Amino acid sequence: MAASVEIDDIRKSYGPTRSLKGVSLDIRAGEFMTLVGPSGCGKSTLLRIIAGLMPQSGGEIRISGAPIDHLPPKARDVAMVFQSYALYPHMTVAENIATPLNARRLSRFARLPLIGRLAPFQNVARARIREDVETVARLVEIESLLQRKPAALSGGQRQRVALARAIVRQPKVFLMDEPLSNLDARLRVTMRTEITALHKRLGATFLYVTHDQVEAMTMSDRVAVMMEGEIVQCASPQELYDAPADIRVARFIGSPEINVVPADELFRACTEMARHIGPQAADLDIAFRPEALRPAGEAPLFDCRLEQTERLGYDVLLFLRIAGWNGRLTARMTAEEFGRLVPCEGRIAMHLSPNALLAFDRSGRRTALHAAPAERSVREMAHVG
Amino acid sequence: MSADVVIGAASGTPHLRPRKLGATLSARLAYAFAAPSLILLAVVMLLPIAAVIAMSFTDYRLGDLGVTFAGVENYTKLAGDRTFWRALTNTLVYVAMVVPGAVLLGLLLAVIIDGLDHGKAFYRLVFFLPVTATVVAMALVWKYLLHPNIGPFNLLLRALGLPTIDFFSNPDLVLAGLAIINIWSLAGFNMVLFSAGLTSVPQELHDAASVDGLDHPLDRFFHVTLPLLGPTTMFVIVTSTITAFKVFDTVAVLTRGGPRGSSDVLLYTTYLEGFSYFRMGSAAAMTVVFLAVILIFSLIQARVLDRKVHY
Questions:
Q1: Where are the domains of chain B?
Q2: Between the CA of residue A262 and those of A267, A281, A282, B11, B87, what are the distances in Å?
Q3: pTM of the model
Q4: Whole-complex ipTM
Q5: Which CATH superfamily, name and number, covers B73-307?
Q6: Is the pLDDT at A374 greater than 70, yes or no?
Q7: pLDDT tens-digit series, residues A98-131
């Protein structure tokens, strides 16, 4: 049932503004792929182009290897879930879910309001549609709501109806445009797991658009990060977190945001660090995750001023300043570790492991860090020990 | 009164404590504030209607200095008055022609114009022009357009080898002729209302319909546009009905109720009764019947349609 989707050099321009600058992406059959990026990066535009709601300015889209650019939306075998759910307000839940089936299995005359009922030879088709609707309603647990109108449903229930309407015709590809962004925080967490479970059960290809990096990280097989009309990196969630290819990806993925310090400032704050990284790195930006700053008493150490703390229950976030640089660093540790910490006149020493450092050149691309080889192996062994 | 409170609070007079947020006004003060608008409402809106109802139970003649109570005599006379019944029937027939015509044409124009890529504003302006034109002047233009000998409409029919149609002297066609004028002037107004309604149909719903396979314009119209225009349609039908019931100026200018009373409508009959024959009591009774008919129609439409258009 699942189909692969190949997006090949898709471009979209509105006059002089280019909102998609040649996007290419291969989505494997049955994969849960998430397009994530800040608002206005073109991810929704790409989704609408795949659905056939908008023509591209250039490039090609193939589903299971066959080009679909000439096909209208209904012939593409894709289903879409919209941010506002886009349920038909005048129809009951059952009628909403049945709409894609009606459009395919009933004649145009039979679909007319009021007089459509008079159309002959449609009873078998109607009965089968009813069965399919009930099956899908059971799948997303809305059997009891079938006779209600959308206005009488809660946000989460509407979301399920929208999912059911997408599932009912068993498309090869599901497109989801920020389907959870209108739900409250608690419901979003529940629906997140439900959608991933649904993906496993259906085995179809999912292309999911969101601006929420948490959704992207928790739900997807792979995540494609889009920035300014381009895909900057496409990788598994863990790889995006551990090895971002671009400073923008590093900043976008992970919360709280990754720490970025110019290398020379880092050297000034901790001269020992220069030995680990090497002086050739002086004009790079060094980035490290908040959990890389440890409260351990082992070199290399940073002398930091503790400016503010945020207790998150299990975790504590520390906002720190280092001498001579006016940026702020974030550290994350467990509440237990924080309890053992004894600041001296508001100052604490933090350990930063050289292995956790990521380096980016001035254009924002990731570059390798070369430490003195001997030094490095010693450090690594010490770290393991 | 309120000024005292404010001054007291500002100068910190000890015995007048500043009011708390959300403190309630005394009932007397509240009524005092509401009184001016209540009085105005009563005098301007309710009193004239009450006066007409009262007058319908008298035999008042225009110019008389005194009136006498006549009970329901005006109404019983109306019940047996063939002119009145003919006017009422004519009006209903007229409304039955104008409302569907003006509503459907307005809807059609709005949907077509909404689908245009260019020139939306131009077409809306053009179709709205008749609304701004004075009906009396335009009625004369229409009289010319539909004239049996020199009117372009009949010249066209003649050129096509068809028999000519004389709308305003044929008793069977005169109401249709008047209805055409009213549809012409009302459709543009309805179009503007429908256009406003169309802007509230969310684009995502059209997108959803495309993905669901409803991509034929007719499918789209019946499954998305029309249902979502429900509340607008109800409003348009009710206002169009009321406007059509109030037909007067075209009748007064073009036909004077003729030929042989076949275009006599309620308001024109009422006007003649009151201002030509000076029988104000009887005219008031007609007005009351007229108001009652409009009220009943509006109530039925609102009741029936309201259940269908709000989801």
A1: 16-55, 73-307
A2: 9, 10, 8, 61, 91
A3: 0.78
A4: 0.79
A5: MetI-like (1.10.3720.10)
A6: no
A7: 998 888 888 777 777 677 777 777 778 888 888 8
